[in-house]
Amino acid sequence: MSTTARAVHQISRPQGFPTAADFAFVAGPLPAPGPGTALVENLYLSVDPYHRESMDAEWELHTPLEGRAIGRVVTSRDPRLPVGAIVFHRHGWRTHALVRPEESRVLKPLPGVPLSAWLSVLGGTGLSAYVGLVKIAQLRPGESVFISAAAGGVGSAAGQIARLLGAGRVIGSAGSAAKVRHLVDDLGFDAAFDYHDGPVGDQLRRAAPDGIDVFLDNVGGDHLAGAIEVLRDHGRIAWCGAVAQYNGGEPPAAPRNLYDIVGKSIRLEGFLVHEYGHLQQELEDFLAPALRDGRVVPDETVVEGFDHVVDAFLGMLRGENTGKMLVRVGEG
Ligand code: NAP
């Protein structure tokens, strides 16, 4: 086992799009677990859009960062975290972490399902898609659903979950022709479009001539306005994120057609996945059979090596990922 632990620290606040110079890699001796803790060697790290928001104020400079991670217990001073156990915790952006049982979850791997899935479709990402569609939008069989940032982590999970729920037409938007092909050819979307190719409302209307019932929004701005245009009466918007505005500048003005929400009796509701942690087992029970028989695939871009965690984060913000962006830092 290595005797050195490495961590990424944020060292400056970005103006606009962050750069590698906002981070530093810091090495130190492996920490030793005290009573009630275990030393975990991280295997997979998650880099997420909300980390960009954390960079503005929430993350302290020159300290280890917060982030979802999966690792293996290598030394333990608590029987609830036995050596060899695979655990989920939130001390990411580092190779090793001291973890307490009450802030971690011992995973029960499912046959045929890769460990990384607990950071993608079975993790907070999949849970966001599930909560948005099932609890917030209350998608019913036969209804049409539009998903923005559909080729990302939440989006790719949402498209597949919508199919399992018996959605009628499933439509996605994404940032490149290759992603659009991936949505239709690999993930079972009925239609998809590149949002660079024209106004979202116009493209969505062509993809869903009869309108949509549900919109799971990961982008905000022009996507929200376009979806309001095409939503049917009594449609629902589950607002999950607004990745188009995380990198600074003036946030987009409210959609000019916002008042159509009244005219069409649309329900718009935002949500934060951390308030739905109690649904983790429900998500696993719902997805496990479909993961086993291949109706759902964990859609992931896995970057190799701890040295590339910052590159993976910046790449995700630029749209270089297909599915959930993860970093593999150890042998799973
Ligand atoms: P992701 O979609 O895997 O990665 C971010 C994607 O955003 C990129 O791949 C890129 O794809 C797209 N993007 C970047 N800039 C954009 C822009 N200006 N316009 C349109 N698309 C842009 O990330 P994720 O983790 O699945 O998160 C997706 C959204 O869900 C984010 O808004 C995130 O904050 C939100 N979220 C919310 C919760 C919650 O609790 N409410 C939980 C998890 C995630 P393209 O190539 O398609 O542009």
CATH names the topology of the largest domain as Rossmann fold
Structural class: alpha/beta
- What is the string of helix and strand elements? EEEHEEEEHEHEHEHEHEHEHEHE
* Major β-sheet annotation: 7 strands, mixed
Which parts are unreliable, with pLDDT below 50 for 5 consecutive residues or more?
none
Set out the fold topology:
Blueprint: E1 4-10, E2 23-29, E3 38-46, H1 49-56, E4 69-76, E5 86-89, E6 96-99, E7 105-106, H2 124-136, E8 145-147, H3 153-164, E9 170-174, H4 177-185, E10 191-194, H5 200-207, E11 212-217, H6 222-230, E12 231-239, H7 260-263, E13 267-270, H8 280-292, E14 300-304, H9 309-318, E15 324-328
Parallel strand pairs: 8-9, 8-11, 9-10, 11-12, 12-13, 14-15
Antiparallel strand pairs: 1-2, 3-4, 3-6, 3-15, 4-5, 5-7
Helix pairs in contact: 2-3, 5-6
Q: Which key phrases capture this entry?
A:
single chain; 332 residues; alpha/beta; Quinone Oxidoreductase, Chain A, domain 1; Rossmann fold; 7-stranded mixed sheet; binds NADP nicotinamide-adenine-dinucleotide phosphate
Structural description of this entry:
- The chain has 332 residues and is of the alpha/beta class.
- It has 2 domains: 4-120 and 298-328, Quinone Oxidoreductase, Chain A, domain 1, CATH 3.90.180.10; 124-274, Rossmann fold.
- It contains 9 helices and 15 strands.
- It has helices at residues 49-56, 124-136, 153-164, 177-185, 200-207, 222-230, 260-263, 280-292, 309-318; strands at residues 4-10, 23-29, 38-46, 69-76, 86-89, 96-99, 105-106, 145-147, 170-174, 191-194, 212-217, 231-239, 267-270, 300-304, 324-328.
- The strands form 3 sheets. Strands 3, 4, 5, 6, 7, 14 and 15 form a 7-stranded mixed sheet that branches.
- Helix 2 (124-136) packs across helix 3 and helix 5 (200-207) runs parallel beside helix 6 (222-230).
- It is globular.
- NADP nicotinamide-adenine-dinucleotide phosphate binds at residues 48-50, 124-125, 128, 149, 151-155, 174-176, 179, 218-219, 240-244, 271-273, 316, 319, 321, 324-325.
